[in-house]
């Protein structure tokens, strides 16, 4: 199978790069905003009651989970930018088939076609 660019290198690549970079900026900004919530909770029970501390610990864990999701999203965006630089953008990293344009419009960093994504969830 001969691979042709899934996107028009002249026009679409610049648009996609702009979208991916904007997404990356949003994720980085959210990470910076969420850094305060993920800080360790103080053990000083004189200042913070037990229930308040439990709430703070729960909030801290939720902030850490959000940070992990943002980190995954950031890596996905960086990988998409790398594929764009290599000329592989728009092609499934598993099967090599073209990813549907509508799928890429919904999530420009998506690495796999819908068939491979559904296959991964069936496993």
Radius of gyration of CA atoms, rounded to a whole number: 20 Å
Structural class: mainly alpha
Low-confidence stretches: none
| Mean of pLDDT | 82
The coarse silhouette is elongated
The ordered string of helix (H) and strand (E) elements is HHHH
Question: End-to-end span in angstroms?
Answer: 27 Å
Helix content: 55-70%
Sketch the major β-sheet: none
Count of β-strands: 0
Number of helices, where a helix is a run of at least 4 consecutive DSSP H or I residues: 4
What percent strand? under 5%
Description:
It is a single chain. It is built from 4 helices and no strands. By secondary structure, it is an all-alpha fold. It has a domain of 77 residues. Helix 1 runs antiparallel to helix 2. The longest helix is centred in the middle third of the chain and has 37 residues. The chain is elongated and about 55 Å long.
């Amino acid at each position: 199978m001969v691979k042709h660019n899934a996107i028009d290198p002249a026009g679409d690549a610049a648009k996609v790069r702009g979208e991916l970079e904007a997404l990356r900026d949003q994720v980085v900004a959210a990470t910076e905003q969420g850094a305060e919530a993920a800080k360790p909770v103080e053990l000083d029970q004189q200042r913070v009651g037990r229930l308040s501390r439990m709430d703070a610990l729960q909030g801290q864990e939720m902030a850490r989970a959000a940070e992990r999701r943002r980190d995954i999203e950031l890596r996905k965006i960086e990988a998409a930018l790398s594929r764009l630089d290599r000329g592989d953008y728009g092609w499934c990293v598993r099967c090599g088939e073209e990813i549907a344009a509508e799928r890429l419009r919904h999530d420009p960093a998506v690495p796999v076609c819908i068939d491979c994504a559904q296959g991964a969830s069936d496993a």
